[in-house]
Write a structure and sequence with these properties.
single chain, about 120 residues, elongated, alpha+beta, 7 strands, mini-chromosome maintenance (MCM) complex, domain 2
Length: about 120
């Protein structure tokens, strides 16, 4: 029994160490040339280069006629409004890196950042 507890504790310590190491790696990276890829019904329908100077909106309509209004502003992208019932996509923070996508499951919409990353040497 003591051997199993020791093994479990070692595994937990290794997991915590790996998580902390992962945070340092992600925090030390910069996103260069980020592009937002917009998928509707599983197909890429648009790719947008994100720039701090951009400020515009556009609509994406899926094959069922459901609409999401996308906003691009200050190098970020997100969903401004949607005719889905739960509005999770509208309440998702705007994104500018590839860590988390914006997803509207009812309207079959995914916005994913694809970026080239480089280590921060500053």
């Amino acid at each position: 029994m003591d051997k199993q507890k020791t093994i479990c504790i070692l595994i937990i310590i290794l997991i915590i160490f790996a998580a902390i190491l992962g945070l340092f790696i992600v925090k030390g990276e910069k996103v260069l040339g980020g592009e937002a890829c917009i998928y509707s019904d599983g197909k890429r329908i648009r790719t947008i280069k994100l720039s701090p100077d951009d400020d515009y909106t556009f609509e994406v309509k899926n094959k069922d006629g459901k609409v999401n209004t996308i906003i691009v502003k200050n190098g970020e992208i997100g969903v401004l409004s949607a005719d889905c019932p739960d509005k999770i996509c509208v309440n998702t923070p705007y994104i500018s890196d590839g860590l988390q996508p914006v997803v509207c499951v009812p309207n079959h919409l995914v916005i994913q950042i694809e970026a080239r990353r480089t280590q921060d040497n500053d």
